[in-house]
Amino acid sequence: MLAQVLAVIIFLAMFVLIITEIWERHVITLGCGLLTLVLVFGLGMRSMDAIMRTLNVQSIFTAEFWYAAGETSEASSGINWATIIFVAGMMVMVEGMARVGFFRWLCMRIAKMVKYQIVPIFITFMILSGILAMFIDSITVILFLAAVTIELAQMLKFNPVPMILSEVFCANLGGSATMCGDPPNIIIGTSLGYSFTDFITNTGLMALVSLVVIIIYFYFVFGKELKKDAAASVKKDSYPDPSEAITDKKGFAISTVIFLCAIVMLVTHAQTGLTVAFIGTFIGILTLIAAGKDALTLLKKVDYKTILFFVGLFVVVGGLEETGILEVLAGFIGKVSGGNLMLMIAIIIWISAIASAFIDNIPFAATMIPVISNLAATQGVDLSILAWALAMGTDVGGSATPIGASANVVGIATAAKEGYIIKWGRYCKTMAPATIIVILISMLMIYARYL
User: Fold this and answer.
1) CA 71 – CA 398 distance, rounded (Å)
2) What is the pLDDT of residue 237?
3) What pLDDT, on a 0 to 100 scale, did the predictor assign at position 70?
């Protein structure tokens, strides 16, 4: 009982501290992780086995961690090293692509393709944001898209805020389509043994339908303002050539090949048996070899704070799992829904969306995985249906508020740096209805397809 109380107190304290941002996120989760090891497992449970299961280091040294011959599900208990290694590898690849000017070239190429017309740029950048976020971290996507959008806004004399808001939403939505698009999906996939194909054929379909609806929604919301800007915009005889964005032609070609290689490996990983941990490691090493003398610079640019954030977070959630708290929560949802799958899906998708609008969706997803696993086992329902509801709720719900997802924070900060201030009211007025629309579409599509 003492261990359960301590685990809950540490978990709640971690969430409150993350929201208040008193310290950096990785410091909070690592501190709370250490308290979980000492107080929950040491003082409360007096169990060395619980500590070993949560640290989960031994899993890295098994053959199944790198190569899974059959349909194997990774243990969701403790630190999910597959997620951490995969995220680190993809970070190295993205830094390598950024170094040679890949993202900047792509944005400028598209702007040139639509002859620098504001409304076509608005629509194509939304689509680009959604597609890129399927394979690359949404934070990176928004960092480059927002920067190029502001550059184009200053060149063509239009307000970049509507474009940045729509790009942020589409990045979060695009991330929901694949296993590697958003951290919650990486956690769900590696924990429950789902492949890239599983995601693209389930959440991918929901994201595609939603993207079409959302582009129409944003066009109606911002269309008038953009057309007004387009009428007043200044047309020039010459615009910057996209090729100027490329800083290293040979490196650019190699980075493009590595990126395509990563996509092929991810799409086929269920058939080849190569795990996401192997793919992340292989792609990371390949990028470092290609970078040559710049390899050390790439390694320095990797976001180690996010990786440490994951480590601490998994330990804290491991405390809830080991003490049986998550089983209690699963039992409560089962009791409230009365075993009704329709009600269960509604509870999971809406609670995930609302919670993710205010708290970080990564710890929320990590907490909910053992909950839905228990629900599926005790209520006799298909685990994958609950997993898709959780994925869509956590991935899209974060779009509703400025603090709900990292991409939102980055987009707003990039705009503010150039003097374009996006306040809570302006943000929520357009983004909250868009979030509700997508959650409704996802819920109805889950009902229509699986029930």
Assistant:
1) 31
2) 62
3) 55
pLDDT averaged per 10 residues in sequence order, the chain, 451 residues: 93 85 89 96 92 92 83 60 88 89 87 89 95 86 88 88 96 93 88 92 97 97 87 69 88 94 87 90 95 92 85 89 84 85 94 85 84 89 95 94 83 87 91 97 96 86
Sequence-separated (6 or more) residues with CB below 8 Å from residue 387: 188, 192, 194, 372
Side chain identity at residue 30, one-letter code: L
Residue 4 in tokens: 């359960």
- The vertex-64 CA angle with 63 and 65, nearest 5°, equals 90
Contact, 316 vs 36, CB < 8 A?
Answer: yes
Q: With 0-12 CB in 10 A as exposed, 13-18 as middle and 19+ as buried, what is 110?
A: middle
> Do 405 and 377 form a contact (C-beta atoms < 8 A)?
no
What angle in degrees, to the nearest 10, is found between the helix axes of 406-417 and 161-175? 160
For the CA atoms of 67, 174, 79, 380, what is the dihedral angle to 10 degrees? -80
List of residues 6+ apart from 303 with CB closer than 8 A: 91
Give pTM, 2 decimals.
Answer: 0.80
Whole-angstrom Cα distance, residue 124 to residue 140? 18
Report long-range pairs for 57-64 (Cβ below 8 Å, ≥24 apart). Answer: 57/81, 60/277, 64/275
**DSSP annotation string for 108-172:** HHHHHHTTT-HHHHHHHHHHHHHHHTTTS-HHHHHHHHHHHHHHHHHHHT---HHHHHHHHHHHH
Three-state SS at 403:
coil
Using the 8-state DSSP alphabet, how is residue 340 labeled? Answer: -
Residue 284 has which token pair?
């990371």
**Alpha-carbon distance values, 233 to 15, 110, 248, 260, 416 (Å):** 46, 18, 33, 37, 22
Distance of CA 285 to the CA centre of its chain: 23
On whether the CB atoms of residues 398 and 172 are closer than 8 A, the answer is: yes
Q: How far is CA 27 from CA 23, 32, 80, 409, in A?
A: 7, 9, 19, 19
**31, 351 in Cβ contact below 8 A?**
no
Q: Compute the distance between CA of residue 73 and CA of residue 385 in angstroms, rounded to an integer.
A: 16
DSSP letters spanning 1-65: -HHHHHHHHHHHHHHHHHHHTSS-HHHHHHHHHHHIIIIIIIIIS--HHHHHHHH-GGGGGSHHH
Q: What span, in angstroms and rounded, lies between the C-alpha atoms of 121 and 163?
A: 9
- Predicted local distance difference test score (pLDDT) of residue 72: 47
